Amino acid sequence: MMRLVRHGLMYGNLVEVSSPSMVGRYNRALEHLTGKQTDLKEFHIDISGFSPEIGDEFDDPLYLNPNGCNRQFILLNVAQKTAPLLNAHFSTSRSILRRFIEDNEEQLFALSIRDAVVGELVNTIFSIRTPLDLFDIRTIDVEADTVGGHVEAGDELTDKIQRFMTEPDGWWDDVLIAEMVELSKHTGDIIRTPIALQPQSFEQGNFYTSHYGGLYVFRNVKRTACISRQHLEADDLPVKHILTLQNRREIASFLSRNKLVEPVFEADKRRAESILRQKLDFIVIDTAATRGEDLSDVSRRDLRALKRKHHRDLPDEYHDLERVVRQLVKGERLPRITPEDPAFFYLLRSRHHADKQLVNMLLSELTPLDFRQLFICNKDSFYTQYQSWSDAKKTFAARFLSEEYVVDKVGTRTELFGPEPGMSGEDEDNNFRTEQNMGPWGAIPRDDDEDDDDDEDDD
């Protein structure tokens, strides 16, 4: 894994904490939340204030996330907003934290000059005992204050100022005035520099969770589903379909009938040809690495030689995609590929909607040989799979990602997945019509248990 760290592909963009004053401030916040302190003199933190070094020191990667369902956070600096979120149990947690920081950036900046800001992403449950408990999480409330309680004191001072200004005898209330003076010593001038944080609540709609081996929960769609990595012992979930990643036909039908995906070649066939050729290269690399080839300095010419050498050994995904690319180049009708074919999901990407990142994350699990999409959309799964790869594939993947992706992350994501959805989550491209998103080659056959009554809402 150190190869990934050296290339900036793991633990990248964390915030360094090295000055004695900031370490001391972090320790006060840590003791306030957990009753513990670190002996480390320098470490790095993510957007929530979690430090992988301190996690190792405590032998507890969940020291800020007890039970994995109410994430606590420590903000030393608003610069944390661009850092990643490590050990995330819910796909929505990082976006909620970033939105909270951005919406309160001025107040948080003023507060963090004095003290660390601590808080929690609060939902209605405190532990997850069954998969059904996940469906009780509907909203996430963000609660925050400094270790010294500046926000609470500011709210109290605001109330007393209001009393002082409105009560008839407020001007002569010596006790009230004395209390205001004492509070102002703690809060500073809240008239010129307000320190109130706006209460915020975020809806937990469709999401991924790492609980129970990994679950994709789609409940804010017309035809609801829960898709798990492994068989789930639960038949009481409030969704229409309970699927595993092996239910390829059912997943394809679910994605299509909810209009969540489109073929990669729908918008620009020339760009799609380039994307698919790269996917072919990744499959070749996997096969060549398995057969002991040296991939330390592979050129385009070397890749062509590897394709010729191992052509018969390449998996079905390769041969199906190769036929599609060949027909794209000729401008002829594309060969028909069904959900049962290994290459099917390699030809899809998410449409432009609020759950675009979540859908692309799911697709990355269905296309594991495309290590680039896996890294971009699903880093935890990438790190897990990376450990089982040969050294040759690890070397190639690390070099490719550092040279081809890290140097232009935004451009690569735009090329692969199209523009990011707006904050409203509205579909902003009128060119995506319903009939264009039924599947790469037209409508995907309905499941046997679905009939015309499915045109009504399932919820």
Automatic annotation (TrEMBL):
InterPro entries the record matches: DUF6638
Report residue spans for region: Disordered: 416-459
Q: Where is the composition biased (Acidic residues)?
A: 447-459
| Pfam families cross-referenced by the UniProt entry | DUF6638
The protein's name? Uncharacterized protein
Which species expresses this protein natively?
Roseibium album
